Amino acid sequence: MTTQPHLIIVLAAGKGVRMRSDLPKVLHRIGGRSMLAHVLATAQEAGAARLALVVAPGMEAVRAEAKAVAPGIEIFEQTNQAGTANAVLAARPAIEAHRGDVTVLFADTPLIEVATLRKLTAALEAGAGIAALGFEPADATGYGRLIVDGDGRVTAIREHADASEAERRVRLCNAGAMAFRVADLAGLLARIGNANAKGEYYLTDAIAVVAGQGLITRPVVCTEDEAMGVNSREQLAAAEAVFQRRARSRAMQAGVTLTAPDTVWFSFDTSIGRDVTIEPNVFFGTGVAIEDNVEILANCHMVGVRIRKGARIGPFARFRPGADIGAGAHVGNFVEIKNAKLEEGAKANHLAYIGDARVGGGSNIGAGAIFCNYDGFNKHFTDVGAGVFVGSNVSLVAPIKIGDGAYIGSGSVISKNVDPDALALERAPQEQRPGWAAKFRTMMGRRKKQR
Ligand code: UD1
Ligand code: CA
Questions:
Q1: pLDDT, average across residues 85-93
Q2: 3 state DSSP class of 154
């Protein structure tokens, strides 16, 4: 059989009570983005011709997230959470307008991969009416069981609560994803009843209905990692762990050295070049891009930063959104950089805050330098030219401009622009009283004896 255009329907109307959260379950994050966004991105990558989402009434934040990820998505409301078959039926207008295959995914099963969706489609192309995704979890409690006959056909999916003792011994479980190649999916779903332990309309009962039409259901098997459903905070953490494991191996396969992989944390969009070395305990929030040959020493935290070729970072460096670290630049311990560009070869090796600024190529920012960017109301910009030397413990009070090649003496509070190649100093003149310390010690020693 042939390839058909695909409608992918993502179900997200469940209440998610087991999360005990004010946030809708599918907006909880894995690798820095919502579970819903993970599933929608996978659906898009799999080449869905049409994308639909089913939400419950009042899930405005879920709708907004879906539109942000997939602007063309059609969103439907399921009035009562009467089960997965009922949820798919909420998308009836999309189903009826579509000519081709339909795949149903759960928004609470975020780690499913494109290759697996392709396997479901392949099963349809090989002649199945339904392809059902199965997996063998270490602990099957709570999952529906795939009942497979001697010819490798799925004859039913039995929910845990409805399963007999013998059926509960079946290890192949329902991952939730199902693909359909049937003439009238909406008509088929409308025939499903709710005579089960929960009194819900189960999508999985479509298997029996198609069997009555002479169509067969084939199982497609994936790993437990992919099929993991998130219903609780513990399962959320377990899914996060799987995500991190995948991200670490992807990075290493792409030529990144992780000296302690288990301690490095990635986001979904972390991008790292070749021959980058990352020491233990490094956290990549969203929006981090690292070019080739960068070295990141231990204990760094970064969000929204680009680090260019050959830079050396850390230990204990912190980057916040809008940081841009030039080629060959050095950023050392306890340096925080936000919305600031360090140009090629610039250095800030210890104890500094650089916010809302440019630091020109080859400039050196001394220990304890603070870019005073905030006056309590507004943020202001600091422009430091190329080849500037900023001594230790300098405050640069923005808005301010330091010309190329200027030299700022240690301890100065600089609040006026400095010309190129000038020395700027702001200090009270040093006073010296000869012999004062010796006299002071003698006097204090006498008083101590008298007591
Ligand atoms: C479901 C499956 C079970 C499978 C497990 C895998 C059914 C009947 N059960 O159980 O076989 O092993 O997932 O994780 O399919 N939803 C709606 N509307 C509803 C009910 C659910 O949109 O009325 C959505 C939920 O938001 C969720 C998905 O459907 O994304 C699954 O619902 P959930 O209640 O989590 O089902 P499980 O009990 O986990
Ligand atoms: Ca679930």
A1: 98
A2: strand
Whether 59 lines ligand 1, by a CB cut-off of 6 Å, is: no
Give me ligand 2 centre to Cα 109, in Å: 7
pLDDT tens column, 232-272: 999 999 999 999 999 999 999 999 999 999 999 999 999 99
110: its two tokens? 């975020």
Number of H helices, E strands in the chain: 11, 34
Q: Contact 300/320 with Cβ under 8 angstroms?
A: no
Q: How far is the CA of 71 from the centre of ligand 1 (A)?
A: 25
Atom of ligand 1 nearest to the CA of 25: 26
56 CA closest ligand 1 atom index = 22
| pLDDT value of residue 3 | 82
pLDDT value at 6 more than 80: yes
Tell me, what's the pLDDT at 15?
Answer: 83
Count of C-beta atoms within a 10 Å radius of residue 237: 11
Instruction: Look at ligand 1, atom 34, and give the residue with the nearest C-alpha.
Output: 14
Any catalytic annotation for residue 350?
A: yes
8 Å CB contact between 245 and 264: no
Question: Which residue out of 160, 301, 350, 380 is catalytically annotated?
Answer: 350
* Secondary structure (H, E, C), 139-150: CCCCCCEEEECC
Q: Tokens for 68, please give them.
A: 């942000």
203 lines ligand 1 (CB under 6 A): yes
| pTM (2 d.p.) | 0.93
Which of the 8 DSSP states describes residue 48?
-
